[in-house]
């Protein structure tokens, strides 16, 4: 049943390898401050540094291209860029709430969770990154939802974007609680699927493609099928509220880099794939096979529009999935003031906050 409301050069290898634990331990958590209204600023000029989170996934293509091609660094100028790799959204949320991250590409589910956990204070959604790029892949014998009963289905992390999507879908089918859902790192899921230890997985790219091409999985459901026009926010850009308030110039520089990365990918697809693959090799030790990255790119759409109108439904989905106890009040969650300034300057259409910019 379809849902009713459906209207994304690294400075040095050592910098990439900065661990989350080291970062969290080296910086004290910053005190919570009253949330500013969208566009409100205590402008302190450009920041000395920008600590940026992202994942080694094709769904984070905008971030990977921005780093590899130097778009972020170019726009940031004298602001030092400190990229930090994460493997899942909940861990990145911890970094945001601990004050060890200034901005980050992250899934829609953890983005909502960061806002909820901080009672609407810690973060703001400032842009989109990627739409699409998530699939439920299964073994060949699973031909209908009921075939998943008694089987093991994997998502990347408890409460991450794909975890919520899977459990919401299972609930819609009357199967939540009848299917074993477990969480594993994506590379472990690939190995487990090959060994027959798991029979299905709801994964982001490139991992759904890798299971199909390397482990003999089939696509049971592309998440695009569940959304109006096939659009849903897989990756968005969050900024810590205090940083946004103090350094709007730096946030706009980051957004210009994001826009440049997306424009580059659209105009230079082959080079964009090569840039993403170079980053993935540096981050994981292994580049993707060309057929894998080619397939993964067909699933994603790069767009700075965060698709704000989908977030109230996403909040409801977390409750249906039993990942959250109650819906999150999203008033004030979205601040696209800086994004729209950047888009206007580039002669591009502005995006809609869907009313979520108001407290």
Automatic annotation (TrEMBL):
Compartment list: Cell inner membrane; Periplasm
Keyword annotations: Cell inner membrane, Cell membrane, Membrane, Signal, Transport
One CC-aspect GO term: plasma membrane
Domain of life where this protein originates: Bacteria
Residues spanning the signal sequence: 1-28
Keyword Lipid biosynthesis (UniProt): no
Similarity field: Belongs to the bacterial solute-binding protein SsuA/TauA family.
Protein name: NitT/TauT family transport system substrate-binding protein
């Amino acid at each position: 049943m379809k849902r009713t409301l459906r209207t994304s050069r690294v400075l040095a290898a050592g910098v990439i390898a900065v661990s989350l634990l080291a970062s969290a331990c080296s910086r004290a958590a910053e005190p919570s401050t009253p949330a500013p209204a969208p566009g409100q600023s205590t402008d302190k000029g450009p920041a000395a540094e920008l600590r940026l989170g992202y994942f080694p996934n094709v769904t984070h293509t905008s971030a990977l291209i921005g780093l590899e091609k130097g778009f972020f660094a170019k726009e940031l100028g004298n602001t030092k860029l400190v990229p930090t790799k994460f493997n899942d959204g909940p861990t990145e949320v911890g970094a945001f709430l601990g004050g060890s991250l200034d901005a980050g590409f992250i899934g829609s589910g953890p983005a909502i969770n960061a806002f909820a956990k901080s009672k609407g204070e810690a973060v703001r959604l400032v842009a989109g990154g990627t739409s699409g790029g998530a699939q439920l892949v299964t073994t060949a014998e699973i031909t209908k939802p009921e075939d998943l009963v008694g089987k093991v289905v994997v998502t990347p992390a408890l409460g991450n974007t794909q975890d919520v999507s899977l459990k919401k879908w299972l609930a819609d089918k009357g199967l939540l609680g009848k299917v074993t859902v477990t969480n594993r790192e994506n590379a472990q899921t690939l190995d487990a699927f090959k060994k027959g230890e798991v029979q299905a997985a709801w994964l982001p790219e490139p991992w759904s493609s890798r299971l199909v091409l390397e482990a003999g999985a089939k696509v049971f459901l592309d998440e695009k099928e569940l959304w109006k026009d096939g659009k849903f926010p897989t990756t968005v850009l969050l900024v810590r509220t205090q940083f946004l308030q103090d350094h709007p110039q730096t946030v706009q520089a980051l957004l210009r880099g994001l826009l440049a990365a997306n424009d580059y990918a659209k105009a230079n697809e082959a080079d964009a794939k090569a840039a993403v693959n170079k980053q993935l090799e540096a981050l994981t030790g292994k580049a993707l096979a060309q057929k894998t990255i080619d397939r993964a790119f067909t699933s994603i759409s790069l767009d700075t529009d965060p698709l704000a109108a989908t977030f109230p439904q996403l909040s409801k989905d977390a409750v249906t999935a039993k990942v959250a106890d109650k819906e999150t009040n999203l008033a004030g969650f979205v601040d696209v003031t800086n994004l729209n300034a950047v888009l206007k300057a580039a002669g591009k259409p502005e995006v809609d906050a869907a009313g979520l910019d108001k407290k």
